[in-house]
Amino acid sequence: MSVFGEARNPIIRWEWIIDEWDQIREALVQHLELTLLSVALGSVVAAILSAAALRFRMLATPVTGFTGFLYTIPSVALFGLLVPYFGLSRLTAVLPLAAYTLLILVTNTLAGFAAVPDAVRDAANGMGLTPTRRVLEVELPLALPYIIAGLRIAVVSTVGLVTVASIIGQGGLGSLILDGLQRTFWTPMTIGAVLSIVMALVLDGAIFALGRLVTPWSNRARST
Amino acid sequence: MRKQFEGSDTDAVSSLSLDIAAGSIVALIGPSGCGKTTTLRMINRLIEPTSGRLEINGRDVIQEPVTELRRGIGYVIQQGGLFPHRTVAQNIATVPRTLGWEKGRVIDRVAELAELVGLESEMLDRYPDELSGGQQQRIGVARALAADPPVLLMDEPFGAVDPIVRSRLQDELLSLQQQLHKTIVFVTHDLEEALKLGDRIALLNIGGVLEQYATPDELLRSPANDFVEEFVGDDRGMKRLALRMVSQLAYDRGPVVDIGIPITEAAKAADAHGTDWLGVLRGDAFAGWVRVDDLRNGDALADVPRVRPAAQVTPASTLLSAMELIMTSRTSVAVIDDDGRFGGVVNLDSIRKNLSSEDDS
Amino acid sequence: MIGGVLAQAAVPRDVGVFEFLFGAEYWTGAGGILTSLWDTVVLCGAVMIVATLVAVPLATVLAHHGRGELSVTWMVTLSRAVPTFAIAGLLVPLSLRRGWGFEPWPIFIALLLLAIPPIYLNTYTGVRGVDRGVVDAARAMGLEERNVLFQIEVALATSVMLVGIRVAAVQVVATEPIRAFLGGDGLGRYVRDGLGQNNDNLLLAGAILVAGLAALTGAVFGLLRRALPPGVRRIR
């Protein structure tokens, strides 16, 4: 038995990729859409929760506790729980995926703001900035490296979880894996798995690059 | 006892050789980067000397198993280095238990040590972080002494506590040492501490160069070179005064008379000393000063107005505090023994004579 | 879309969620909940034991010698981003080719990769985080090197280590149900069968079982922490 597989059912049959390119492209697009939608929704909710926790200190513990609780709910269970209410819909996939991003996004956002030096905050106040302008012009930029680091982890883990969302029929690269599994045909399984890992790495790199663009000061600090 | 390091780690400590007398306290001091901590840690081989010899009681211990060596050397560090997951008693019992002492003996020893360093027994079952910094430091000392090691190493032992507690812990260490007679080597960056605690001081320069190894008094009296002179500062005369006690002075009784003698006799005594003040004694006790001018106005010495309180010191006072009193009083300083008996008087002249004498005994 | 090689649990459509969860007849028997639960517990237990046996000694030794600081950065990312489904999917063909079947190897290895990072991370930072003064003092008192490691460094890191093991265990238990979609069974089968048979009650009951086991796992580790010796427990 060769590592590269038997003639009839190899790990990868290259012709299949060409023949079924449309199916692969569709899965890729669906996967990307689900990922971006979920992270976008997660980011909006995380921003609101973080803002609330930063504005009202007493909310910090409940907010982090709640997002931590969401994170421990098994993905299979959460998809399963929502199906009876929202059916096999995109919403059923996006809600849990967005919920899972909250923990890392909120944690890192709060850590980012906590890391703003008191002296900088004092200086901003001392120069007469209004609280809103101080947060937007001074604190937020300084917290950005943390927020971006959280975003990277959120995106990478969401790409991985979107494959699980295929169990509720929302397509994506996970559907290639399930498809191959049902037909005991390895090529789509391998393609689905490899492409999902590649997508995670590409998106991670993209956000990293974006992060360096929007926080030029932190690159310079790091390189010296 | 003899310790010797030669040509160890080229940069850290180079060709350092120290002889440390058994039962004495030696302070290692110098600017940061001088290798004083490295030197200390070579003694219990937390840092292995690159080369050289380390002898304890004439026995070369470099070849000995390192754990055996360390069990015979107590080690105290800043904030104690206590094990936070073990109670105070368990901390103190570490080495005895490692040595396989039986349980009863360990318990007795822990109780004994707690009393020795002044820890209340109910603290033994607490955890270190429930206690104050000063108490933690005492536990650190008790733990180091647990198996009665002849040698004690201390790395800035009192660096982490506030000045008042530090001073008290220093005094406690000195009184412990009077009972225990350990050989103690300690590292400090505080010259006052080195002068106060050390029988001898090893002053190191960058790279572990030994600039001077001398008694505190010798270090202050005759610095070996410019580096030492600069390190001890330009008030080294005053620092020497702080090292010496009034009891070390060659003082005399001064112009004092008993309160019962006739006025005329008293005036003669003042003339003999060339002073215009006269001390009055009632029995053994000092009763106050009178002005010679006032003697003419009275019939009996007891009727002459006396100035009290007079500046007083005890034999245990430092010369520095004696001098301070002399500077602010208009007379010489009365020396009064602890039990209220008059001992004699001390003046600037006797202090100056003492400082210029060669030895500090 | 689901079916084929996957076995189906035969539960009538008209059984209510709580009727199912509280009905003794659904728990016992060859295809009962207890059997599925046992499957899950055995797999997760095996994963956790192997992950702990790999990660704890490795991280402890590296941290003790102060090596491999960079591994920490890697593990931080990995601990949140291991794509278990994709990894298991990649491994299934390899496993079948070797004649090892659909499971447990693919899901076992994928879960192992999920479990190792948090355990490694917490062990490493726990051991590395022990006050160097305390370690020095232990050494200076003539403790043997292995006693310094176990009685001081490991003992002081235990609490942090246990947190890492708890995080890993909860994640493993929460992720294990995907096994039901990769040709296996375990507690995830009810979700799978509920979806496959369009049976919402079974789906909900399955989701509740899966979520309940994950919550229980977290709670068990909470109790385990209380079982630590008092001196070790108070270190965080």
Describe this structure in words.
The complex is a heterotrimer of chains A (224), B (361) and C (236). Chain A is an all-alpha fold and 224 residues long. Chain A is built from ten helices and no strands. In chain A, helix 2 runs antiparallel to helix 7 (131-165) and helix 2 packs across helix 8 (173-182). The longest helix of chain A has 35 residues, at 21-55. The relative contact order of chain A is 0.14. Chain B has two domains: 3-234, P-loop containing nucleotide triphosphate hydrolases (Rossmann fold), CATH 3.40.50; 247-356, CBS-domain (Roll). Chain B contains 15 helices and 17 strands. Chain B has a six-stranded mixed beta sheet with strand order 7-8-9-3-10-11, sandwiched between helices. Chain B has a three-stranded antiparallel beta sheet with strand order 2-1-4, with no helix packed on it. Chain B has a three-stranded mixed beta sheet with strand order 12-13-14. The longest helix of chain B has 18 residues, at 163-180. Classes of the chains: A mainly alpha (224), B alpha/beta (361), C mainly alpha (236). Chains in contact: A-C, B-C. The B-C interface holds B 44, 46, 66-73, 75, 77-87, 90, 94-95, 98, 127, 140, 143-144, 153 and C 131, 133-134, 136-144, 147, 152, 155-156, 229, 231-232, 234-235.
